[in-house]
Amino acid sequence: MPRGVVTTYPEQPEPKDSSCPGNATRGSMNLLTLTSTQQPSAAEDPSTDTSHRALVAAAARVLGAGDRADRAAFLARALNGLAEVVPALGTRALDVAAHAPSDYEALLEAVNSPELTTAWHANDPLAAAHQRAAEIKRHLLESEGGAMTVAEVAKRLGISKQAVDKRRRGHKLLALESSRGFLYPTWQFTDDGVLPGFEQVLATLEAAPWTQASWFLTSDTRLADARPLDALRRGEIQQVLRAAAGYGEQGAA
Question: Residue 43 is part of which domain span?
């Protein structure tokens, strides 16, 4: 906690279940008060005091966001992770992140810095693989127009959200599970509904949803190195069906 800052917490009853990482902080989340009791001395850098005040305000906001057990548990893990790796960031990396246009971009700048990558790899031998997998998933969700929520798909197709979910479970729509729930790649739709031939190809392609999405967006030798998605858009349904049926055979050969 920065110098000159007093943090006060009202007394709270013991949590009903101390085994839950969020319960210990639930009672005091919205009652936190942060006050400054000391002004910086003349010799003290004003920018340091401003940074400390910003840190206190951010900490209060984080505590306020942890008003549920699941949120508090996540925030605790995330903050502990940041506390472990921030010392590894050099002055330049910290300065670039601190002057990013938005808080979100500041976090991305720090996460993508070479120093942080090195620190993660030192603590977790599989960190590089995890980071690469996350990057691939983000790319798949952002490609060809991004992805839609179940409500957006329902509106686009003129059906209920329950009907959309039924199609997903019936392997008639491709949905990718994420922290925001199921997201539906926009490229499987046209202005008139689902891309012609997509349902048949999806039913033929035996793979997990994320792998299916990657396959549609990756060139295939069976299609003269065209992407299955592009071939479907050209109306080459039978060719794409044959490529989907033969998926995996090429790698096994």
Answer: 5-88
